[in-house]
Amino acid sequence: MPSDLLMRPARVGSLSLPNRVIMATMTRSRTQQPGDIPTALMATYYAQRASAGLIVSEATQISPQGKGYSFTPGIYSQEQIEGWKLTTKAVHQAGGRIFMQLWHVGRMSHSSFHADGQTVAPSALAPDAQVWMVGEDGIGRMVDCPTPRALSVDEIQSIVQDYRQAALNAVEAGFDGVEIHAGNGYLIDQFLRRTSNKRTDIYGGSAENRIRFASEIVKTVSDAIGSKKVGIRLAPFITQRGMDDSEAITTILLAAKQFNRAGIAYIHLAEADWDDAPVVTTTFRETLRTYFDGSIIVAGNYNKASGLDLIQKGLVDCIAFGRKFIANPDLPYRLSHDLPLHGITDPTTLFGGNEQGYTDYPVYSKSA
Ligand SMILES: Cc1cc2nc3c(=O)[nH]c(=O)nc-3n(C[C@H](O)[C@H](O)[C@H](O)COP(=O)(O)O)c2cc1C
Q1: What is the maximum span of the chain, computed from C-alpha positions, in angstroms?
Q2: Which residues have CB under 8 Å from 215's CB, separation 6+?
Q3: Would 359 be classed as within a structural domain?
Q4: 24 close to ligand 1 (CB < 6 Angstrom)
Q5: Ligand 1 centre from 205 Cα, in Å?
Q6: Of the listed 45, 186, 302, 358, which one is catalytic?
Q7: Would you say residue 354 lies in a domain?
Q8: Is 302 among the catalytic positions?
Q9: Which end of the chain is more exposed for a tag (fewer CB within 10 A), N or C?
Q10: pLDDT digit string (tens) for 293-338?
């Protein structure tokens, strides 16, 4: 197998990537408070990883209502836009490219994040799920998500506009594009699935109706910043968080056809990253290829061999790595030279904290 395939350039939307090793989006919860403002430390972290073909930023809330975890960044205030400029400038100066992941958590949230004490969703159904919240004692813990309030049609349409504004803000902040987070049981995914969407209006019922919200966002954001600067993240295989819908795969494949019509740059699949996750079938991959002409990026426990295998078969274009990028800022170099990979030293540094476990992982050195 030609082991340099991962290092071959790729075209994703209007970007030319020098390699196919993508940094997957990862929440690290290190913003400045109050205000959920990106910091200089975050800029250092991303710039250290600028050798990725493309970096996708951590999930970033499009509005105060879209927040569901402590210390995650936003992209709706001027301070946040200015804060993000530090990151985009540092990444570009280091020769990299970076998209922002746009996020609305919907019901995956907690009352205390919201001025009116309410979380929102397509339907008033609580997920069987928890979010990470730092209490007044300064200690982070997992807390149950309460029962959300069902959104009205007017509210849904105004959230579509929030995505539009957030995308414009991301471009103003210097991002090369945006990735719409439509996976992992967050708001858009909640609309896609019959388990979380019990609406009887134009946003619920048939697959076409459940896809409508995602399609409106994709179209509106594409009209605002250009479809070649837009990607979408999907997680067809998750069953946790109240997402276990036997029609999920067919719904998501149908959605992919609609995203194709919008001409967006890529689909980024969040695949299995847990132990007994389902195997993604070749049939699924081939069908997705038939329905979608843009690039396909996959993430989920990949290593060099498994990633190369899919690229060589022509089933995907790029491989995204999450945890390996946390502990190996120079991951493309290490992969291309078959060098040993560092592991995550202390999992308590994943969410929140300072430079420890964040910007202190070294690049490869022979002597180390
Ligand atoms: C610390 C951490 C934070 C994550 N945050 C996000 C996120 O903000 N948005 C998202 O779509 N996926 C998120 N993920 C999932 C990753 O993007 C990726 O799909 C997953 O880690 C599997 O890839 P890996 O096995 O290479 O780590 C996160 C994963 C980790 C480990």
Answers
A1: 64
A2: 255, 258, 259, 262
A3: no
A4: yes
A5: 30
A6: 186
A7: no
A8: no
A9: C
A10: 999 999 999 999 999 999 999 999 999 999 999 999 999 999 999 9
CA distance 71 to 61: 11
Q: What total number of domains does the chain contain?
A: 1
For residue 47, give Cα distances in angstroms to 7, 40, 170, 179, 268: 19, 10, 17, 19, 22
- pLDDT tens-place string over residues 251-262: 999 999 999 999
Kindly state whether residue 367 falls inside one of the protein's structural domains.
no
Distance of CA 206 from the midpoint of ligand 1 (Å) = 30
Q: What is the mean pLDDT of the chain?
A: 96
Yes or no: say if 18 and 9 are a contact pair by the CB < 8 Å rule: yes
350 Cβ inside 6 Å of ligand 1: yes
Which structural domain, as residue segments, surrounds residue 58? 5-349
Amino acid making up residue 300: G
| Ligand 1 pocket check for 232: Cβ under 6 Å | no
CATH number at residue 254: 3.20.20.70
Q: Whose CA is nearest to atom 4 of ligand 1?
A: 26
pLDDT category at 182 given cuts 50, 70, 90 is very high
Whether 224 lines ligand 1, by a CB cut-off of 6 Å, is no
Question: How much is the pLDDT for 275?
Answer: 65
Residue 333 lies in a domain: yes
pLDDT at 274: 67
> For residue 300, how far is its CA from the centre of ligand 1 (angstroms)?
8
The per-residue b/e assignment along 315-352, b for 16 or more CB within 10 angstroms, e otherwise, is: bbbbbbbbbbbbebbbbbbbbeeeeeebeeeeeebbbb
Q: Is the pLDDT of residue 2 over 70?
A: no
pLDDT at 4: 86
Can you give the pLDDT at residue 276? 67
Percent of the chain whose pLDDT exceeds 70:
98
| pLDDT mean over 119-131 | 97
Q: What is the pLDDT of residues 239-280, one digit of tens each?
A: 889 999 999 999 999 999 999 999 999 999 999 766 667 889
Residues 6+ apart with CB under 8 A from 290: none
With a 6 A CB cut-off, is 322 part of the ligand 1 pocket? yes
Residue 333 — φ and ψ, nearest 5°?
Answer: -65, -45
